[in-house]
Design goal:
The protein contains 13 helices and two strands. The chain has 293 residues and is mainly alpha-helical. Strands 1-2 form a two-stranded antiparallel ribbon. A hairpin with a 6-residue loop joins strand 1 and strand 2. InterPro entries: MetI-like, MetI-like_sf, UgpAE/MalFG_permease. Its main location: membrane.
């Protein structure tokens, strides 16, 4: 007969939740409420003088062609980073899950990039592909490609996508590998006995059983692309050239910190927050239906 533990102290569950609730309120709800209120104000660059202007910041924001361009850039950037980081990590995880002699070392090397800060990762990739001094830009010039992410918009986008994907692969790899190791070997062996080839076993058995992990990583990667890639973009291109790599989160920083438009920057952050919440809700509402738990 199984024994159950009963806590007589009714306050204990609330005390255990209190640290997390405090962190959530202090670092999420309070800044979010401040951003919403600030989006209705017009302030000077130092935030000392403010005036309530209602929806003027939002009206001015949607009148800017640059803001719509940052939206398009964010869509392209987020789609490329999420798709590439998830697919490459899944490929590496399936290879690491095999019986290889150097599997532990391989797994360790795959995890290391996750410990690198986004800004540091951006600097590393920038120095590797710096037009005049980069060790990888010279071979590109030798192949006849005039590589210059400082002037060419497409090259700049490719560079920040590569840096962001490289940074996120390790995180996705960890969860995919854990999900693969949790799949019972008897299920895969049964598929092999039925005559299913490795590729067919992957798409009909392995990948459906990985759907909870894939769904979780899809949500996490969307949040990563929208927020955590700021350091990479700032270190690699600074949003340039000519705003080609200015995503929505970087525009919040550029307009608020560099441009001194605190009210407009707050309005952008509110819109960005609404978009991320909406995307997450859509994923839970529609994508999760195809997840097999």
């Amino acid at each position: 007969m199984e024994k159950s533990t009963v806590f007589n102290n009714r306050l204990l569950p609330y005390l255990l939740l209190l640290p997390q609730l405090v962190i959530t309120v202090v670092f999420f709800y309070w800044p979010a409420s401040q951003a919403i209120w600030q989006s209705f104000l017009r302030e000077d660059a130092f935030g000392l003088v403010s005036e309530f202007v209602g929806l003027e910041n939002y009206q001015a924001l949607f009148a800017q062609p640059e803001y719509y361009r940052s939206m398009l850039t964010t869509v392209i950037f987020s789609t490329l980073v999420a798709a590439l980081s998830l697919s490459i990590a899944l490929l590496f995880a399936t290879q690491a899950d095999k019986n290889l002699k150097a599997a532990p070392a391989y797994k360790t090397l795959m995890i290391w990039p996750y410990a690198v800060a986004p800004a540091v990762a951006g600097v590393l990739w920038f120095f590797m592909f710096q037009p005049s001094l980069g060790m990888l830009s010279r071979p590109l010039r030798g192949m006849g490609l005039d590589w210059n992410p400082l002037l060419n918009e497409n090259h700049a986008m490719i560079l920040v996508v590569m840096a962001a994907v490289w940074k996120q692969i390790s995180y996705n790899f960890l969860f995919f590998l854990a999900g693969l190791q949790a799949i019972p070997r008897s299920v895969l062996e049964a598929g092999a006995i039925d005559g299913a080839r490795p590729l067919r076993r992957f798409w009909t058995i392995t990948f459906p059983l990985l759907s909870p992990t894939t769904f979780f990583l899809l949500v996490v990667n969307i949040v990563y692309v929208f927020f955590d890639t700021f350091g990479i973009i700032d270190a690699v291109t600074g949003g340039g050239p000519a705003g080609a790599t200015t995503t929505m989160v970087y525009k919040v920083y550029a307009d608020g910190r560099l441009g001194g438009d605190l009210g407009g920057s707050a309005a952008q952050s509110v819109i960005l927050m609404i978009i991320v919440i909406a995307l997450t809700a859509i994923q839970f509402r529609y994508v999760e239906r195809k997840v097999q738990y």
